[in-house]
Structures are given as structure tokens and as C-alpha cells.
From TrEMBL:
PANTHER family in the cross-refs: HEPARAN SULFATE SULFOTRANSFERASE, SULFOTRANSFERASE
Membrane topology: Single-pass type II membrane protein
Molecular function in Gene Ontology: [heparan sulfate]-glucosamine 3-sulfotransferase activity
Chain segments annotated as transmembrane: 21-37
Residues forming the catalytic site: K145
Domain named Sulfotransferase: residues: 136-376
Chief location category: membrane
UniProt subcellular location: Endomembrane system; Golgi apparatus membrane
Protein name, per record: Sulfotransferase
Binding site for 3'-phosphoadenylyl sulfate: K145, G146, G147, T148, R149, R226, S234, K351, G352, R353, T354, H355
GO cellular component: Golgi membrane
UniProt source species: Chanos chanos
InterPro entries: NST/OST, P-loop_NTPase, Sulfotransferase_dom
Amino acid sequence: MEYSLLCQSSFIISLHSVKNKLFLFCIMLSLWVYMLYCCVGYCSTMPSFVIDSAGRKMERLEEDPYLKIQSRLPKNGGELDSSLPFIKALSRDLLNNENEVDSRAEEWEEIKGEQRTVEDSTMSGVVNGSETKKLPQAIIIGVKKGGTRALLEFLRVHPDIRAVGAEPHFFDRNYEKGLEWYRDLMPKTLEGQLTMEKTPSYFVTKEVPARIYTMSKDTKLIVVVRDPVTRAISDYTQTRSKKPDIPSFESLTFKNMTAGLIDTTWSALQIGMYARHLERWLEFFPMSQMLFVSGERLISDPAGEMAHVQDFLGLRRVVTDKHFHFNPAKGFPCLKKPESNSKPHCLGKTKGRTHPNINPDVVQRLRDFYKPFNQKFYHMTGHDFGWD
């Protein structure tokens, strides 16, 4: 009897132990399954990699060339990788304002806006496959710090215009890559839509007029011009924001300050000699194919200037005063949707920088220097911009 009870108790204890072990096993199995699930989920979110010609791992990028450039821009103020081909192409003398890295970086916010506009405005074209890439029929060729970014953003509102966001620099820096490379940078357009791009350095680059003429002698050219003295100070301000230790504006202006000899080799001053640059363009294009937009009026009366631009491009006057809202904090107009309470879209934070105080005597000397160039420019274009 006692032996039977002992055996029964041993059996119960053994069964209880097995249950505990089984329970623990189930818990451990569940934990392992959960960990495996987490690892698989994490791996699926990681970017895929390819190996470049140097054997380095690189993230696989989208086919859009501007997304490729965007992915290589420095984050949080980091250093640019000078070994990358596009960085080598952009490496220029910062002091002479030939370096466009800073201006390109400023454009990515606008490019993102362009991508949203593309998705909204051309979905029907994507569905029926009627979109194609074309070489630009109109180009904003200048000038730097004149208001070219604002003009491009205003034009993008028009449903009959499609424009590439960042500056291609094809005719001055990438011409050897060929027209097909250039065409591939352009956005897809529907029949009847106009393809555009803007690269402000074209206007002052000697080789560009002949190259654009070779592409198409019918290309329409737009130049946004601004008081050359104010433009030069704005140019200097942008450069100083990237390189604070550069010499003062006054010291860069003169070869010899005592003699008052202007240093015309400084590109910030060269750009403002508009008449000299225009002479090269008139060797290839008639004045009827060129439109000169006032950078000052683009701020004070954007709708009025946009009316002239739309007429020049042969477009309906779609962009009107209903599309603009003046931002007193920034000092220039922002875009808004007509009949909408949505927040106006303004240009990036880097636009509208505060200019440094320049010696009034230096400003006056520059005005005297530019006056004959301005008068000749007024005569050539048939328009007095009122800078004197």
C-alpha cells in the first residue's frame, strides 16, 4: 500500500516537471520566432548595395540623376567627397563665385516641390504613356543673383510648363556629355507643354551662345537682370555665407583703393557688365528671341512681369496676381493657390539674406563705373531699367 502511494506521488511529480519544461520550451521558441521576425523586418528596410569600380560599397540609387546628386550632398554640414565625379566638376574658385555647390544645395527643397507637382499634374499622361522627354525650347540663361530661382518657381505654376529643378550646367560644364545626356535630365512633357531649364552662368560664358544655337536656333532665351551694384553685393553676401573669412567687399572691389581702380577681373563685378555679355549673344540670336526680365519688378510687381514672360513664351496668362502673396519678413512675394486658404509657398531660408553695410563711397564709385555699361544695355534692349 505504501509502495503504491509512493509510486503515484513520483509519477505526479515527474508529470509536473515535464509540464514545466514544456512550458519553458514554448516560451523560448516564441522568443526565438519573434527575434527572427524582427531581424527579417529590419533587413527588409535596409538599402541594397552595389560595388563601384573602386570596390567600395555604395547605396543603389534611383535613375533620376538629380536624386543621385542629392544623395551625395553633405549632411549636417559634413565635408563633400571630392573623389565623386560631380563634385570634381563643381570644384571652382569660391572667391570668384564659380562654385555652385551652395546654390545647388539651396534648390533641393524646390526640387521636392517639383516632384509633387509632377505627380499631381501629369498622372493622366503617365497612364496613357503620352509623355516624352524633349530638349528645352526655352532657357533662363542669367543672371546669377538676379532672381532666376524666383522666376522659375513662378513659371512652374503654369500647367503648360515643365522645368528641371537643379541647374544642369550642360552648355558650360557638361557639353562633352552630349545632347542625349542633356535630354535625359529634362522632365517628361505632354504634347503642347514647354520644356525649360535655368543655369544663370550661361549668360556670361563665352562658348554658350554658339552651343545653344547649334542645339536649336529657335530657342527662346530669358535673362533676369538686376541693378549691377546690388547684384554684386548680393553675390558677395552669398559667398561670405559659405566662406566668412574672405576679404571685405571694399578691398575686393579695387585693384588699388587709393587710385580707385576697379578690379574687373572679380567675377562679382564682371557679371554686371550686361552690355558686354549681350554683344556675344546677338551674334547668334535676334533680340526678338530674348526677353529681359527686371529682377526689381519681379519683386514689386510679379504678376506684371509674369504677364510679359507668358506672352513671350506664347502661353496663356494663367499666372496672375491671384497667385502671389507678399511676405514682408522675407521681402519678396510667395506663391499661393488661388481661392485657397493654404499656406503660401516661399523660397528657401537662404533666400533674402541681409546684405552687409558697404562704404557709401565705394557704392557710388561702382555706380559711376557701371553707368556707361547700363546706358549701352538700355539702348541695346530698348528698355530703361532705372538703375542710374
